[in-house]
């Protein structure tokens, strides 16, 4: 078994191809975890280098029209205190993010339709004028709206598929259509966004075979970014008593993603650190190359409660920037000083050090 396992990992690291049953066998193999992480770390170094891209996350509204059964922002949750930042407040946070040395901001919210396309486009234009890359994560919109955001200057879009199993998706995201989610993802690709997708690991009823198919789908659509995290049960939602997602399975999935999508930008997500202290370092050493520190201020951090136990809710954006910068340097990596667009092909050794940021 040991030799077969190592052969599979070596083959994945060399050819970046495995079939569904091979992926599944590694996902479910506890003993493969260290070797997978080591191989993914090497492939990460070779394709995207030692730079860690920091994206400043602005959680600008926790108002949502959807009913996702796991998420604290779902419209049926009456316990959460709702808020919505004004366009001026959002632009001001982006300006501060630039001051902390970020080169990208991620504008994330519930599906809040008060942010119409013209309103969001105005915000995007003002932030683009500051020479920041803009990533949106505001859920499902029409093709025309995605087009308008793109024309206003948005560079990237995060919309996790959550699971590629249509029945499982529609069970836990009632009222939503899996076919529509796929269409949104393909629309975003067609419009020239860098597209981020990803899996919510641990949805009740999800199997390793489904997760293996998720990875193959990410390869098939040539995902630019893949963000995954374990389910953290939220007591104010119908999945409050579900088992948490398996942290180790999630780690093995990150490593497999790096082996099979070597050029992708892969974040070490906040949910990984909510479950395990210093979880983001472990994930950065298991294939990931992106971190999204929070730049939301004050009480809004606490109120943006997708799940309980969220880290750093009492910290300031400056604290988070300094903390992550120090932790990345302590790992022997560096904070990348460019906007962090997707690499194509193997990294050129000579550009790497030119991009070091000394913040
Ligand atoms: N409304 C947008 C963006 C905000 S939600 C959207 O849904 O795309 C961002 C992500 O948070 C979701 O894709 C989901 O995977 C994750 N999330 C929500 N609730 C969670 C929970 N209880 N545990 C872990 N991740 C969760
Ligand atoms: Fe809304 Fe996103 Fe939460 Fe679903 S996951 S309820 S769309 S914020």
TrEMBL record:
Q: How is the cofactor bound?
A: Binds 1 [4Fe-4S] cluster. The cluster is coordinated with 3 cysteines and an exchangeable S-adenosyl-L-methionine.
Q: Which residues form the Radical SAM core domain?
A: 50-269
**Classification via InterPro entries:** Aldolase_TIM (IPR013785), BATS_dom (IPR010722), Elp3/MiaA/NifB-like_rSAM (IPR006638), FeFe-hyd_HydE_rSAM (IPR024021), HydE/PylB-like (IPR034422), rSAM (IPR007197), rSAM_sf (IPR058240)
Give one GO biological process term: water-soluble vitamin biosynthetic process
Residues bound to (3R)-3-methyl-D-ornithine are 137
Q: List the Gene3D superfamilies hit by this protein, alphabetically.
A: Aldolase class I
- Which molecular function terms from Gene Ontology are attached? 4 iron, 4 sulfur cluster binding; metal ion binding; transferase activity
Positions with a binding annotation for S-adenosyl-L-methionine: 162, 181
The organism's superkingdom is given as: Bacteria
Pfam families according to UniProt? Radical_SAM
- Give the residue range of the signal peptide: none
Name its co-factor(s): [4Fe-4S] cluster; [2Fe-2S] cluster
The cross-references to PROSITE patterns, in alphabetical order and at most eight, read: RADICAL_SAM (PS51918)
**Coiled coil regions, renumbered to chain:** none
- Which residues of the sequence carry a binding annotation for [4Fe-4S] cluster? 64, 68, 71
Report keywords, A-Z.
4Fe-4S, Iron, Iron-sulfur, Metal-binding, S-adenosyl-L-methionine
**Name under which the protein is recorded:** [FeFe] hydrogenase H-cluster radical SAM maturase HydE
């Amino acid at each position: 078994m040991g030799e077969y396992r190592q052969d599979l990992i070596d083959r994945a690291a060399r050819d970046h191809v495995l079939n569904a049953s091979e992926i599944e066998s590694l996902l479910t193999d506890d003993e493969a975890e260290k070797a997978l992480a080591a191989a993914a770390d090497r492939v990460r170094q070779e394709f995207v280098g030692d730079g860690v891209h920091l994206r400043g996350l602005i959680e600008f509204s926790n108002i949502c029209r959807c009913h996702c059964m796991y998420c604290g922002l779902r419209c049926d949750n009456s316990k959460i205190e709702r808020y919505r930042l004004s366009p001026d407040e959002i632009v001001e946070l982006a300006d501060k993010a630039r001051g902390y040395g970020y080169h990208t901001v991620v504008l994330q919210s519930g599906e809040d339709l008060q942010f119409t396309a013209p309103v969001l486009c105005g915000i995007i234009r003002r932030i683009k004028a500051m020479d920041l890359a803009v990533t949106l994560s505001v859920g499902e919109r029409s093709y025309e709206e995605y087009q308008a955001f793109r024309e206003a200057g948005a560079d990237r879009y995060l919309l996790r598929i959550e699971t590629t199993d249509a029945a499982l998706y529609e069970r836990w995201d009632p009222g939503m259509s899996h076919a529509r989610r796929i269409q949104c993802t393909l629309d975003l690709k067609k419009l020239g966004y860098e597209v981020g997708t990803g899996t919510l690991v641990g949805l009740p009823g999800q199997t390793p075979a489904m997760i293996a198919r998720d990875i193959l789908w990410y390869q098939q659509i040539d995902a630019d970014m893949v963000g995954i995290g374990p389910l953290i049960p939220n007591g104010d939602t119908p999945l409050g008593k579900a088992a948490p997602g398996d942290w180790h399975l999630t780690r093995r999935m990150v490593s497999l993603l790096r082996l099979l999508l070597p050029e992708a930008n892969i974040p070490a997500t906040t949910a990984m650190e909510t479950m395990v202290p210093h979880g983001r370092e472990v994930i950065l050493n298991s294939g990931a190359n992106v971190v999204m520190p929070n730049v939301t201020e004050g009480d809004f951090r606490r109120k943006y409660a997708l799940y309980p136990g969220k880290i750093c809710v009492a910290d300031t954006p400056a604290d988070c920037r300094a903390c992550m910068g120090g932790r990345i340097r302590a790992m022997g990596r560096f904070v990348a000083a460019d906007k962090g667009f997707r690499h194509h092909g193997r990294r050129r050794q000579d550009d790497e050090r030119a991009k070091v940021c000394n913040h």
